[in-house]
Design a protein that fits this description.
binds tryptophan, mainly alpha, Hydantoin permease
């Protein structure tokens, strides 16, 4: 086993880390959310703003998280404990662990649907539909069935736990090295099928021809939220993965590659889905139901639809799995590092608790649909609290901590380790990074936070 001086595990290779971190980033956020968010916010102009947010906020904060983790070689709580004596910052780490736990609980519910849809696709049920609205009715009847939704949740969580309990190298790294290339091949196959459909160019036009009148302050906030979510930022997931990196590895180039992979996969997923949706003449602004309500109708009308429907839902499942692994790993790493649990026990116990917390989310679609708090069902409530509050707050505090508490100059000294040759040529890029983490990222994230709690 490759480990650091204290015997803690490390990634076996640089590419292992990049694939695992890209696996965390590429998930439901890219394949389920990105296309529908683009579809509902006007297409190309939104993509432009999104790319800007990824570049000036996402990448700098990702670098900050990976760097903090690699510096301390510990989980998020351990990271703040190593660099600060203040209880406040330890609590920020703890908030990250809690966010990871809560996100895992409902993320696994939606991931369970993608797993269940593999079985639906294999059974060929989409081909029994007689009207487009049947797809939506079928979806509602599946999620309305507590046995189906809980069964899929349990199955999905089980697979996630088995990979995480197998270890950083033997589980997460090995799994990512198999799953990420598979994901890429499936995605290219699905995209190729989409763009070769007659009439698909209308989808490409929608995606790449900007209509600036669609852009408002609200769009910018949605774009920033999406950039944050898709890069797994704000709760120490990237910090935890960074903590298994060696000081010989280059944090800057790895982070750039992770962002590049995540962004290209979101764009390819957009091309694949919109070329097909426009070719069939369906509504691009369907919203969160785009994948489960609209796509089955696309499959029934395309040549080879049976095979592509299976490939697509396997793709969605693989993307969700590598992300869920990172969520469980954050919580597991905390109990392994700080509470000295063994990894197997930590992954099994914590995964089971996340499963329990996932039950009310799963039941929000059936037995508990009338149970609401502040007008939201349990699923929507946990979603709202984490994505609109805990993650932006976490990202805001992480960038403040790095830039102002630990100190950006100390950070630069650490950043240089493993990136010496890059630093000789890229001095000005490093200065831009400093400005981004010190000012631009915290200010922008703070505005998003205010808007998501309804103050602006
Ligand atoms: N990035 C993942 C996606 O796009 C979701 C995710 C995984 C995540 N780990 C996270 C989001 C940590 C925020 C924080 O689907």
């Amino acid at each position: 086993m490759i480990s650091n001086q204290s015997g803690r595990e490390q990634w076996g290779s640089k590419v292992g880390f990049i694939l695992a971190a890209a696996g965390s980033a590429v998930g439901l956020g890219n394949i389920w959310a990105f296309p529908y968010v683009v579809g509902s916010n006007g297409g190309a102009a939104f993509i432009f703003i999104y790319l800007l947010c990824v570049g000036i906020i996402g990448l700098p904060v990702l670098l900050a998280e990976v760097l903090l983790g690699r510096t301390t070689q510990r989980n998020p709580v351990g990271t703040f404990k190593t660099l600060s004596n203040s209880k406040f910052w330890h609590a920020v780490g703890a908030m990250g662990i809690a966010a990871g736990f809560i996100i895992l609980s409902f993320y696994a519910v939606v991931a369970g649907w993608s797993l269940g849809y593999i079985f639906e696709a294999v059974r060929g049920v989409f081909f029994d539909f007689s009207a487009p609205t049947d797809a939506e009715a079928h979806f509602n009847s599946l999620v309305g069935n507590p046995v189906w939704i809980i069964g899929m949740l349990v199955l999905f969580m089980f697979v996630t736990m088995v990979i995480v309990l197998s270890g950083v190298r033997k589980g997460i790294e090995k799994g990512s090295k198999i799953l990420m290339p598979l994901l890429f091949i499936l995605l290219l196959g699905v995209m190729f099928r989409g763009i070769t459909m007659e009439g698909s160019s209308a989808g490409l036009y929608f995606l790449f021809n900007p209509d600036w009148s669609k852009i408002s302050a609200g769009t910018v906030l949605v774009a920033l939220g999406q950039a944050f979510f898709t890069l797994s930022l704000g709760m120490g997931a990237m910090m935890t993965y960074g903590s298994y990196m060696s000081k010989k590895d280059n944090v800057v180039s790895s982070s750039v590659q992770i962002v590049g992979l995540d962004t290209s996969i979101a764009l390819i997923a957009g091309v694949a889905i919109f070329s097909a949706v426009f070719a069939i003449g369906l509504d691009p602004a369907e919203g969160p139901g785009l994948i489960f309500h609209t796509l089955p109708n696309v499959f029934t009308q395309m040549a080879g639809g049976y095979v592509f429907s299976i490939l697509f839902f396997v793709l969605l499942f693989v993307a969700a799995l590598t992300s869920a692994m990172s969520l469980l790993e954050v919580v597991t790493a905390y109990f392994v590092d700080e509470k000295k649990w063994n990894r197997k026990k930590a992954a099994l116990v914590l995964g089971s608790f996340a499963l329990l917390l996932g039950l009310p989310s799963a039941l929000s679609y059936n037995l508990m649909s009338d149970f609401t708090i502040f007008g939201l069902n349990f699923f929507d409530l946990t979603f709202y609290i984490t994505f609109n509050i805990m993650l932006p707050l976490g990202g805001f505090l992480i960038s403040l901590f790095l830039a102002w508490v630990w100190g950006v100059d100390k950070a630069v000294v650490e950043l240089k380790k493993g990136a010496e040759s890059l630093f000789e040529k890229a001095g000005w890029q490093i200065s831009i990074w400093k400005v981004c983490v010190k000012y631009i990222a915290p200010i922008m994230i703070f505005l998003v936070l205010l808007s998501s709690i309804g103050i602006i």
